[in-house]
Write a structure and sequence with these properties.
The protein is α/β, with parallel strands linked by helices. Helices cover 39% and strands 16% of the residues. It is built from 14 helices and 17 strands. The strands form 5 sheets. It has a 7-stranded mixed β-sheet with strand order 4-10-9-8-7-5-6, sandwiched between helices. It has a 4-stranded antiparallel β-sheet with strand order 13-14-17-16, with helices on one face. Bound molecules: pyridoxal-5'-phosphate.
């Protein structure tokens, strides 16, 4: 690859060749075939530097953080806080205090629903979400609406998977207290124009939470430029470990919030009569944190940044275009989600076969794709589908992987026939 060439002119196929060897699991075989892993929107595989960081921590640094006045604990604390600084840099947050380590996106959204929204919502207030949300950005809002008497409102989706922007403008009424929106749809790949939507909400004084679970592996996120009030993501979709993720929150908002959970770490002074809470971000990190996986996440961010997120994005864009063209040639196959601005997610149905049958046949060919509702049941209902099959791409996927997928789909066609009418969904 010629580093001096502009991104659009570069052949990025070499990226996968260069990186594949960094991911030990990708050397596995499935049913006697080389594994073609295309379920990256569910979780990504982990490169050796992440595995090494986890091992190094447990072999050399393991101690509880913040409280120990001995060298090992100080080392563990330094590594844990360096991981926080790494996340801050990765998403360009203004301050380390704005980064709260949590289990992942789901936990982050629940924290905001309970610690931010619940005390502020009144009967008749509205929480605005969209029709393409993951359940983790639907159910926490349903719970808090039930607790407070607020109403859930939903921005509709157009047939191609884009949000209906004129409906959005109309829904942004005076009763809306929060907009909670996905950056990238896990089921369709749609990239929402969140910068404009945040600005629109802010013009009416409405704070915004962004679910970035599917965005951070594919797009450069700059929180100071975006100006989101909250931004949530998970480490495991970003080549990092499971069980770790982060919530970004603007400092002034986090400071005004009550804690979510009580316990150790989140206090500065406790008596039976009264407790003073710790400063940010510890106020929201009750209990022993997930130290090892935070360190593993930092290693994943180093890995991604060393390759260059822009390079990864360009590679995935090329692969998405290649995959889209190839899938459209498969008899009976229909892509679900054709927004012009899409991340590397290919959701589809076939006239001949149910998504679960597709997935099972693909698995016998070594190809791992997801089949089902993708934790977005209301979206599936909107499209009149029980589910889709979904191939989701990552930096280590290649054109050859797509070719194997297509060959496996032709196997589905051969088994179920060259149907011209849809069925089985
Ligand atoms: N939001 C989106 C868009 C997702 O795709 C996912 C996971 O698939 C989540 C939220 C939930 O992430 P986690 O299960 O890591 O909390």
């Amino acid at each position: 690859m010629n580093e001096s060439m502009p991104f659009n002119d570069v052949d990025y196929t070499t990226l996968a060749e260069r990186c594949r060897g960094d991911f030990p699991l990708l050397a596995r075989q499935m049913h006697g075939r080389p594994l073609v892993y295309l379920d990256n929107a569910a979780t990504s595989q982990k490169p050796q530097p992440v595995l090494d960081a986890l091992q190094y921590y447990y072999r050399q640094q393991n101690a509880n953080v913040h409280r120990g006045v001995y060298q090992l604990s100080e080392e563990a604390t330094a590594a844990y806080e360096a991981a926080r600084a790494r996340v801050q840099r990765f998403i360009n947050a203004a301050a380390m205090e704005e980064i709260i380590f949590l289990r992942g996106t789901t936990e982050a959204i629940n924290l905001v629903a309970q610690a931010y929204a619940r005390p502020r919502l009144q009967p008749g207030d509205e929480v605005l979400i969209s029709a393409i949300e993951h359940h983790s950005n639907i159910v926490p809002w349903q719970i808090v609406c039930r607790q407070t008497g607020a109403q859930l409102r939903v921005i509709p989706v157009l047939d191609n998977g884009e949000l209906d922007q004129s409906a959005f403008a109309e829904l942004l009424g005076p009763r809306v207290r929060l907009l909670a929106l996905t950056h990238v749809s896990n089921a369709l790949g749609t990239i929402n124009p969140i910068a404009e939507m945040i600005a629109q909400a802010h013009r009416q004084g409405i704070p915004v939470l962004i679910d970035g679970a599917q965005a951070v592996p594919h797009l450069r996120v700059d929180l100071q430029a975006l100006d989101a009030d909250f931004y949530a993501f998970s480490g495991h979709k970003l080549y990092g470990p499971t069980g770790i993720g982060a919530l970004y929150g603007k400092r002034r908002i986090l400071e005004a919030m009550e804690p979510w959970q009580g316990g150790g770490e989140m206090i500065s002074q406790v008596s039976f009569e009264h407790t003073d809470y710790n400063q940010l971000p510890y106020k929201f990190e009750a209990g022993t944190p997930n130290i090892a996986d935070a360190i593993g996440l930092a290693a994943a961010l180093d890995y991604v940044d060393n390759l260059g997120l822009e390079v990864i994005a360009a590679h995935e864009r090329q692969l998405l275009a290649y995959g889209t063209r190839a899938l459209q040639q498969v008899p009976g196959l229909r892509l679900i989600g054709t927004a012009p601005d899409k991340a590397a997610i290919l959701s589809f149905v076939m006239a001949q076969a149910h998504p679960h049958d597709i997935s099972t046949i693909l698995d016998r060919c070594g190809v791992a794709v997801r089949a089902g509702h993708h934790c977005a049941m209301p979206l599936m209902q909107r499209f009149g589908l029980a589910g889709t099959a979904r191939a989701s791409l990552a930096l280590y996927n290649s054109r050859q992987d797509i070719d194997v997928l297509i060959e496996a789909l032709h196997q589905v066609v051969r088994m179920f026939g060259d149907a011209t009418t849809e069925g089985g969904q």
